[in-house]
Q: What sequence folds into this?
């Protein structure tokens, strides 16, 4: 009886031990996309594996690379649809891939829905709204302004915001300035962002 009990316990523990070795192999794989491919469909590891394996995009990337990254972000969202961070990233990828602005706005709306009070994302959505101001409907512009007023833009993003605003037509800059002023944006913050 003791032998059967021992064999049963060893048999029952074999599966978790095997899965434990898979987790160790995953941890040792590093962050190279090729090394992570065996885990992109493993429950519990799929999101992290796909996240580390995202195709990098820079200013010189071609349309094919940009579309591939957008598809990868969509796959991440299929695994974790409440990731408000990746909804913003999907909106950015859709703009970069020259998709219809309405599709990017849908992703931005889902980011606001899934993470309305996440500090970093409030700023990120505000910056996205400034970047795409001319394509935004009135409701999205209002949310952009509220997001920018809610939190002070970090020094890391300040240069990007100044440059983006500097390249906007004067009429658009004035429109943004008046909208910010109506929400109580301080004079010192106007000076910070170059308006």
A:
């Amino acid at each position: 009886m003791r032998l059967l009990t021992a064999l049963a316990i060893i048999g029952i523990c074999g599966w978790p031990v095997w899965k434990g070795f898979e987790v160790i192999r995953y941890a040792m794989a590093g962050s190279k996309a090729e090394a992570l491919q065996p885990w992109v469909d493993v429950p519990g590891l799929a999101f992290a594996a796909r996240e580390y394996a995202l195709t990098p995009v820079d200013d010189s990337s071609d349309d094919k690379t940009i579309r591939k990254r957008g598809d990868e972000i969509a796959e991440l969202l299929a695994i974790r649809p409440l990731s408000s961070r990746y909804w913003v990233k999907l909106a950015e990828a859709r703009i970069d891939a020259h998709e219809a602005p309405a599709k990017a706005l849908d992703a931005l709306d889902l980011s606001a829905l899934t993470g309305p009070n996440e500090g970093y994302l409030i700023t990120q959505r505000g910056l996205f709204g400034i970047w795409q101001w001319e394509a935004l409907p009135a409701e999205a512009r209002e949310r952009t302004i509220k997001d920018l007023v809610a939190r002070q833009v970090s020094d890391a993003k300040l240069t990007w915001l100044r440059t983006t605003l500097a390249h906007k037509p004067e009429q658009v800059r004035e429109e943004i300035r008046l909208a910010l002023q109506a929400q109580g944006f301080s004079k010192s913050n106007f000076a910070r962002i170059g308006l």
Remarks:
- The longest helix spans residues 2-28.
- The CA atoms of residues 145 and 179 lie 7 Å apart.
